[in-house]
Amino acid sequence: MELGHDMANTEDSSFARTVIDGKFATADEVATCREQVKKMRRSGTHANLAQVLVERGFLTDSQCRRLSEDSHSDSMYKPAQQIPGYQILGKIGQGAMATVFKAKQLSLDRIVAIKVLPKRMSENAEFVNRFYKEGRAAAKLNHVNIVQAIDVGEAGGYHYFVMEYIDGKTVWDDLREKGIYPEKEAIETLIQTTRALEHSHERGLIHRDIKPKNIMITKTGVVKLADMGLARETSDVEAAMAEAGRAYGTPYYISPEQIRGEVSIDFRADIYSLGATFYHMVTGRVPFEGSTPSEVMHKHLKEPMIPPDHLNQSLTAGIGEAIEVMMAKDREDRYPSTKDLLLDLAAMQRGEPPLIARRKYDHDTLQGLASGGMTLPRSSTKAEKKVNPWWIVLALSFLLLLAVLVILAQFLGR
């Protein structure tokens, strides 16, 4: 039964992306319908996303049939077989944006993965351009913790991207199957992912979509950062201006500056998203939840998050401190570099406190005390309660008045 639900959810995700990309419905409208589908399935009622979208008037029956055929079509399998130099062995997965095949590179006799853009996407210049940008971005990186790019090209009207084949799983798979990560395992995964980001950031590339589904783990425990589809060079001013005002990223893990569509996105956006991923790994929950993407993103902007060690009280204090610094809403309050984050993660791996995060806490506390309006950081005070100083003043005044009255009574009684 669970497998059936997983397959249905995968199909819904693919169909949802097709609907949104085709502008048949907004992301919020699709999200609302998906929530309705989940409730219906939990109550034992058979339902799918296409059915609910039609019932609520977002799609017509004919649109639904056409989009469903497009979303579930295996017609790409045959064209994929025609990619020169590669033998297609089978389909690994399919989303609305691309289909991924397992293949053999004949010249080197090695197994690779080939991502193929659907025909309907190939007719959209923006999608084709983004597809090739992903390949070029990945090709600039050469690191053990990053999925290696091998080739990009076009065959028979289909655009393809060849990359390293990863025989393993994703962090998302682990979270669904096993739940909360053990602290040591989470830190080790974060260290390897941060090394990948350090390599990327040093070369001027911001990933912009760090999340559990994009962190892969091989059977030997090597972490591989995947999917450079939203990566952007910090020096690419033209792309930054073209994307100004639009939110690129995944709502559960996106940074506040990405939500605002700021032009000058830098490495600290990746640190925020990695912090949100870290939070999910050690608590089993995303930092902010909501019924629509807009609601979730609003919370990233405005609401304080529940400290991770309040949800998982077995966590050491250092984990909470590091995550809160990684996920500071103001990027100036986050780690000043990916290298500094690595130093704190390595310290926690040795069982030591994250000194850089702690120094930031101390600085924030002093700043708050200077302005007269701040308590100690949440992670270091989870067992303490805020005390209002006016109550203390009032209590002392009452005791002083009482003492004066006692002395006066004794004097008059003589």
Give a short synopsis of this structure.
51% of the residues lie in helices and 12% in strands. The protein has 414 residues and is α+β, with helices and mostly antiparallel strands. The protein folds into 3 domains: 2-72, no CATH class; 77-164, Phosphorylase Kinase, domain 1 (2-Layer Sandwich), CATH 3.30.200.20; 168-371, Orthogonal Bundle (Transferase(Phosphotransferase), domain 1).
Description:
The protein has helices at residues 2-21, 27-42, 49-55, 61-72, 77-80, 119-122, 125-139, 171-178, 183-202, 237-242, 256-259, 267-283, 293-302, 308-311, 317-326, 338-349, 355-371, 389-412; strands at residues 86-94, 99-105, 110-116, 149-155, 158-164, 168-170, 205-206, 215-218, 223-225, 232-233. Helix 1 runs antiparallel to helix 2 (27-42), helix 1 crosses helix 4 (61-72) and helix 12 (267-283) runs antiparallel to helix 15. A hairpin with a 2-residue loop joins strand 4 and strand 5 (158-164). The protein has three domains: 2-72, no CATH class; 77-164, Phosphorylase Kinase, domain 1; 168-371, Transferase(Phosphotransferase) domain 1 (Transferase(Phosphotransferase), domain 1), CATH 1.10.510. The chain is built from 18 helices and ten strands. The strands form three sheets. A five-stranded antiparallel β-sheet has the order 1-2-3-5-4. A three-stranded antiparallel β-sheet has the order 6-8-9. It is α+β, with helices and mostly antiparallel strands. Residues 1-8 and 373-388 have low confidence and may be disordered. 51% of the residues lie in helices and 12% in strands.
